Amino acid sequence: MEKINNMDNALADFLAQKRNLNYNVVDSIEKKPVARLTSEKNASIDDFILMLSKVCKKVMKKMNVELVPDEGGRPRIDQKEPVDHPFIYFKILHCEPVKELKPRIRQDCVDLKIEDEEEELLQPREIWGQQFSYSIQFDIFAGGYKDVTEVMKLFEDTVFTYTAYFKREGVKDLRFVRRVTDSNLDIYRQKCSVRSLQYNVDIEKLFTRFETTIGDIIVR
Length: 220
Prior knowledge:
Layout: H1 2-19, H2 45-59, E1 66-67, E2 87-97, E3 104-114, E4 120-142, H3 145-161, H4 163-168, E5 173-180, E6 193-210, E7 212-214, E8 217-219
Parallel strand pairs: 1-2
Antiparallel strand pairs: 2-4, 3-4, 4-6, 5-6, 7-8
């Protein structure tokens, strides 16, 4: 719950910063080197999907678009009932390590561990990390051609606009790859229109390894 609240606060701060930008036209613009976007935190792929779901809910509120954060989910569509609002589902096509084939050490730490009031121990630990690239497909479902096309364009714009926010919250990189027609979704086309977009999302997974002693054996 605390992590979700932190995401809400971070999104609110990002939106406030966007509202405070000055969009006045000027005669000339001094060109400055663009600072590279870097992560201030660490986010998993599930964190990214949850953040994207919250952003879509705010940005696409008027169209009542719902991004379902359940991996591999599919809509339950009754052929007799109209589709009341657009849905976005996602699935992970594949995940593979990039740059590093195995975790590498990021940081050495020593924690102060208090066993009791009279004994204090120093507990060494190491932080390891490994980068992964996820290929994700987002499937957009809507009641008609115009609606699904509008939602698709709005979704693309939203991902592009909020890339800085996602990176600030721990996503390493986010790239559009392709638009596809997924024949596995043909069963849904009898009732609604479907569009599919694929993105690559780079995530760094961190591992913490403590050094402990069991008897005379040092376990890491």
